[in-house]
Amino acid sequence: MAERKLLVLFGSQTGTAQDTAERIGREAKRRHFHCRVEALDSYPVVSTGPPASLPGSNGIACSQG
């Protein structure tokens, strides 16, 4: 069975998004995903257009307006 991977990126000034991202990461690990939680500014931006599909990847986007 192929390893299930999940990358959760967050951007936060108050810490709320980080807390949420870490909670999602813990839940993903309980569901047997290999999960990484990282700050958005630590991840290289490839495109500023519409979200791109990354082959073999799952993604979650959280935004607070």
From TrEMBL:
One Pfam family, short name: Flavodoxin_1
Region (Disordered): 46-65
Domain Flavodoxin-like: 8-45
A molecular-function term among this protein's GO annotations: FMN binding
InterPro entries on file: Flavodoxin/NO_synth (IPR008254), Flavoprotein-like_sf (IPR029039)
SUPFAM superfamilies according to UniProt: Flavoproteins
Protein name: Flavodoxin-like domain-containing protein
Organism classification: Eukaryota, Metazoa, Chordata, Craniata, Vertebrata
